[in-house]
Amino acid sequence: MAAAGEEQSPGKLLGWYMAGQATWFASIGLQFVLFPYLVAIVLDETPARVGIAQMSLSAPAILFMLLGGATADRSDPRTILFRIHLLAALPPLVLASALNVDFLTFEMLVAYGLVMGTATAFAMPARDATLSRVAGANVQRGVTLALAVQQTAQLSGMLVGVAAASIGAPLLFAGQSLVMLAGGIASRQLPKKVADSTIVHGSRAQAMKDGLAYVRQSDVLLPVVIAMFAVGVFYIGSFLVILPLIVRDFYGGGLVEIGLANIAFWGATILSTVGLLKFGHVARRGRGAMMALAGGVVVVFAYTFEMPFWLFCFFSFIWGLGAGCVMTLSRTIVQSEASEAYRARALSIFQLGFAGGSPLGSLIMGVLAGYVGSHAAMWLPTIGMTLVLAWLMFRSRLWTLHAHDAA
């Protein structure tokens, strides 16, 4: 086993990258099922407190995502990923111990969310910055393959959570910890970043300011970040908070039903991502992402109505098809448009838009659902995303953007 990855073949390096990607998101997939189950079903918290708990998972992105991007641009992403995987193995063990002695509290779940959210804020920019060095010349194919692995692993984690529900949450969280440790070992095999003597690094604070200025001045990157912030507020907040509340309050469901809704969504993202991988180069990436976002508006509008559970899962599936397109095409735009010197920071700002809007959306949707009900609360993302799409259409050039690379 190579210690640093420099002497390994490109295929092996890409394999180690995908192994780290798979282990991280398999554990996240398990978390997707277990975390809302604990807060909404086991603790039976109010809609507002469900929103606060879900917000804790993504709130650290607002504080640390830019710092994570600046750190990845200045440091060795391989070392960052190795250390973050080791750190992320600890919180699941704490929850497993607490559940084993029947001592789970709301505050403990929030603390878990804050630690895991902080780990994600540093892991994502480091992983994204590494992809361009192991993917080769075809950036879109590398991004699409990474997303396909991410979504497949995430779905596998959810399936394990549903299928193994009978063995209990403590053992599942212990398994999550072991998967994180395996990912640390895989990440250690990635190539070490070669220092570029032509790039002069200032302070981390200055690096973050420079990254923000770089994205703000781009007529391509800025609209993508704004669109991803809207996704975080209107789509992710709804998905994380409203869907578990509808399952609990309208369908009377639990871990299995929450898992099925998640599986329908993430299974669809895999299909759309694999479809893009098979289809190949997409020249009109901005147009494709906007059309997929418009499909999401149809879904959140449908969720304003009561419906049978099978139809609820069907709309979750449709939503996932669009999500796979949005994640692949928007990330490819950033990967291909950002320069090497700013790529990690640009990707961290992209991720900040995506994940930074999520805590705000989770809090808003949780409070709103407590006042008007879960179904009526879905009018907010319906109207909000429609307005955002209108702005993207008439005030940005995403609709007419044509990829400059044809690999």
Structure at a glance:
The protein is mainly alpha-helical. The protein is about 80% helix and about 0% strand.
> What is the name of the CATH class?
Mainly Alpha
Whole-number mean pLDDT: 84
Residue fraction in strands: under 5%
- The rounded distance between the terminal residues' Cα atoms is 32 Å
CATH A-level architecture = Up-down Bundle
How many separate helices?
Answer: 16
SSE layout:
Layout: H1 10-42, H2 47-58, H3 60-74, H4 77-88, H5 90-100, H6 106-134, H7 139-163, H8 169-187, H9 204-216, H10 221-249, H11 255-279, H12 285-302, H13 309-337, H14 343-372, H15 374-377, H16 379-395
Helix pairs in contact: 1-2, 1-6, 1-7, 1-8, 1-10, 1-11, 2-6, 2-10, 2-14, 3-6, 3-9, 3-14, 4-6, 4-8, 5-6, 5-8, 6-14, 7-11, 7-13, 10-12, 10-14, 10-16, 11-13, 12-13, 12-16
Structural summary, described in words:
This protein has helices at 10-42, 47-58, 60-74, 77-88, 90-100, 106-134, 139-163, 169-187, 204-216, 221-249, 255-279, 285-302, 309-337, 343-372, 374-377, 379-395. It is mostly helical. The protein has a single domain (10-186, 203-395), classed as MFS general substrate transporter like domains (Growth Hormone, Chain: A), CATH 1.20.1250.
